[in-house]
Amino acid sequence: MDSNGSGRIDWNVWLREIREIGFTNTLLNFEPNNVGQIDLERAHPGGLAQLAAARTGVLSNLFRDPLAFSRAYSAAKRIKQRAEILDSQFGIKSLGLVGGLVNLEHDGFDLALPILIWPLTLERKTDDFELRLGEHPRVNPGLVEALEVSYGARVDEGLLLSLLGAGADLLPISALEYLANLAGPTANLETRRILAVGTFATESIELHADVKQNETPLLRALAGLEAEIQRPTSDTSPASETLIISDADIVQRTVVARAIAGDSFAVETLPGCGYTQTVVNTIAGLVAANKRVLVVAPRRQTLSELADRFAGLGLGGLAIRSESTWFDVIAAISRNEKAVASNLDAPLELRTSAESRVSEYLDLLVKRDEKVGLSVSECLVALAKLSLMARAPQTSARIKPQYLLDESHRSSALELLYQAHDLGEFNFASTETAWFQAKFDTQAQVDEALELASRLEKTVLPELTNLLDSFIRKSHFRPAATVEDWGVYLRLFVGIRESLARFVPEVFDRPLDELIAATGPRTAKSELSGSSRRRLKKLAKEYIRPGMSVGDLHVALTAANEQRQAWQQYSLNENKPEVPTGINEALIAYQNFVTDLASLQSHVDDDASAKPLLKMPLLELAKALSSMAADREPLENLEVRNALREQLREQGISALARDLANLKVKREHLAAELDLSWWQSALEYLVARDASVMKYTAEQIDSIEEDFAAADSAVNFESRAHLAYELSLKWHKALADHADQAANLKALLRTKQATFKSLKAAAPDIYGNLVPVVMTSPYLVSRELTEDRFDVALILDAAGTTVAENIAALQRVEQVISFGDEAIAAPGGFEVECHEYSLKRERIVPSVHSAVANSHDLVVLKKSWRPNGQALGALINREFYQNRILFAPTAAEFLGNSNLLIELITSGIGSSTKGTSAVESPDAEVDRVVSLVLKHAAEQPEDSLLVATASKLHADRIDQALRIALKSKAELEEFFDSHGREKFEVTSVASLSHRVADRVIFSIGFGTDGEGRAPEIIGELSAPAGRRHLANLLVSARNSITIVSCFGSEKLQQGGPLNVNNLLAEVLDGSKLAPAEEFDEDPLLQDLSLRLAKLGARVELNLGGQLPLVVSYANKAAAVLPDWNLAGDSISERVRLRPALLKAMGWRVVRVHTFELFADPEALAIRIGESLGMQLTKRPQTLFDVPAFDESDEAWGDRAESNDSRLKNDKPPHWG
């Protein structure tokens, strides 16, 4: 904007844009307009007199001729509709009656200026309109300025208004004469009488007059004159201390922090990504930082949403709206009076403590060990990946920690394993040969062992078995199981033989415990008296064989008693202990055999888990000896094998080699087996070094996360209470310091009317504390806030307005933050007055949002927090937002339910509207929309509804048909007056502006031609802004969109302006989830998904690129959130906000913890399945029905211990 090359702002550019607001300005250049005006000069005199006297009248009384009434009625509908659009979308109250006209054309000025403007309301009364005039007319500010500039004449507005009087004439001749005389005798201005109802706006005149042309750094930057783009200069990280009153993600917190730091920047608000909550938090943060805030937005719904959000958070009246000033001020005072002290420090400490515990656990999973350079999570993922292989490795061998520290160890170890495989080390398992991992130093040892094994197997073992089996049978002992059992039996036989040599056989007839006690040493605890001991000793000596001498009777009796007990243990009957003949020869043969086995044992594998030969069952021992005698291949290449085994030991993988041999692993599987052993050993090493991760159970983790979520929510709640209390303290201090102003304020509020000007005039020192935030339309700033200054301006819906339109706000601040979305809005301007053909902005003017983004910085809100998902989300994201929106699919979408409904009309296509194309506004489509609207009003009145169409004519016909239909359905009228700012509306897509409703009906408004083809030009969708209109429409629905069409996608002609037809074809094809992009599969979740699928559940990994694993069964769906893959940039997002959003989206949230899944994935899969209603755990079933009491024994007088059952079973033999 440096058109003159002076390095200064060219104000003429912005001033010209301000003058072009509304395209034409009837208050500066009045022209009669039958389309957008009602000329009351042509009204019936009686009706006009009544209107002037009573200030109210009906249109039918003003125009009594049917044709004149019809024209006036049509104009009234257009005027009222335009006035409502200007009021709701731009904050401009334009409906009025202008009276009198001053024409300056004879003096060379192209000006025809109405004199007075009466505020007016138009209320529909069945088939008529009622006009209500306001009591206080205004003097046209354009007239005041024009007369002063052109003639130097100052209009005394008070005097002029006083000339009106209270007579029946709205515009007395004296008012015209006053103005004619005011310009002086040389002036040739013409005054005449007019009375016209229409839409008239003074805002552009006031904005133009308000421009002070004072250059500020902010305005120079927006004009493109600053040399450098402003960047954050202070600590604006989200970790900075900022007051947050509503849930916010990390980007939203960054916006708040930067705002408080004083940065100017733009915020791109992608649909559903927390636009309102970001603004709410930003305003609260700025107020807490003692900054005055000016919030401007053309759309009234935007400001009302903010006011409602603050009220819902307990901060009603924090931001005061210009159109509801008195109401909001009362809410602010009420809040200030009710506020109580709040302790924000306590919940902050709790949250910090809980956050540290959650972070500690999550950090443990990803913390890298300083020695091995690995984390627990990496080990678990690697192990899970191995388990998913087609042939999963199976080894249970471990590698010692010292070998894990050297990464090169793995490659050398694998090379050794390959050599071992090639040498045949893995050809035989321990179950296939007794020489598995045999140890020999020389070939001579091998030959000796082979010969010994052969001899033992062929002769020694069979002979010894026969000999000892005969002893065992004679003694009626249990058969021996092992060689070790033979030794036990032989030692028992020898002991008994020695005892029978000392004692008579009767010594084994009874226990000898008392005799043993009597012959033993005397102790203090002995219970035997001296006489008893003498008697028992005498009895014990009677067991000694005559002529025998026993040196230690106590020891001998103890041995005999133990032999007696052993005999009873091994014997199969109650025969007395006896000694078989030939026991000496058998004992010698056994000892020689054991010695030979020990010789062989010294050469076999020394694995601790292998059974020694002595302990082997005799059949296994026979097989082992047979194997030793016959197997020679495992003993070949002995020197090479010994050298290789030594290398394996040095590398710490000898145990792994032994296990691989047992598993008979093929060469191509050796690497996987080594990896399994290595990663499992690494995991155990990490846990051994820091076992703190093992102290967390699933229940403990859930408890920690619940504690954090509760504390995080409490901080938000207490932050709101803290802010309310701080504002309350300032309020009470201001009242105490300025009691006189407080009285003035009280008197003003009793009138139940207030403006910012009147509030500031009544209590200038209280005003700032009472009104820290002002919310108004950018077009009203110059009128409402004449002398006010602010620290920062927040420009909302900024993509739809220009710098010039916001200049009044921008010149009152040093900092600006704009919020906007250029995909759905552009500064296209608006018409103040209706014309037969709509006017458009001739030049493309950049938005204030793009100006702020280009001159300063841009932050993008791209995480969707919309709980109902987004109809046609994939199309919207791809076509309008370059796939930047991060939104998760809803459970309903995954289950096949869509929030997009297609109502296809296949019959009755055609329009009865005269003078229009036969394909525009088909009757059948009008009827279908009316029936859908009435159905919604009857069945879902709690949801707001919006009807949009691509045809202005179609919108008018739907509106007319609805009014006719409602005449017979009076019970539904309440719905059409409900929902406040989201009141039911039928509009064209071009008229939409950031409009939001729970449900949207999009009626295309065009049918097919005689050949069944859809038109190439589809109304407003085919306009230059058609793509933006379609985008705005699609993002307007909070819950669902219903599309009513007379043709399917196949009937649409390809292409069309801006390729809109192709987009519309995709819309008509219905909603589909975005195709899954390629992603790195998570082995742990992949394993879990396979288990869930086997249980009968439907599973999908990485759904929409946002949910790592989802599972459904029947009509229930769950989102599985593993703790190593939690989405979010902060603990709050990961633990609380994200799970809460998914629950709101219909998902059952299942938190999965790393070790829980790794330890028992099957149990976890069953738990998830059962949570979805799957019957997986077998429950014990009752085998027999429990009999009723009447059928029990007690009921018949019998005792419970009746003999009935015994008698039933005690049958005589001949019964069979």
State which percent range the strand residues make up: 5-15%
The helix count comes to 45
Q: What is the CATH fold-level name of the largest domain?
A: Rossmann fold
CATH architecture annotation name of the largest domain? 3-Layer(aba) Sandwich
Strand segment tally: 23
Output mean pLDDT. 87
Q: CATH class of the largest domain, anyone?
A: Alpha Beta
How many structural units, i.e. domains? 6
Q: What helical percentage do the residues reach?
A: 40-55%
- Give start-end ranges of low-pLDDT stretches: 1180-1184
Please outline the major beta sheet.
7 strands, antiparallel
What is the fourth-level CATH superfamily of the largest domain? Answer: P-loop containing nucleotide triphosphate hydrolases
Radius of gyration: 49 Å
Could you tell me how far the N terminus lies from the C terminus, measured between alpha carbons in angstroms? 119 Å
Assign the structural class, choosing from mainly alpha, mainly beta, alpha/beta, alpha+beta, or little secondary structure.
Answer: alpha/beta
Coarse morphology: elongated
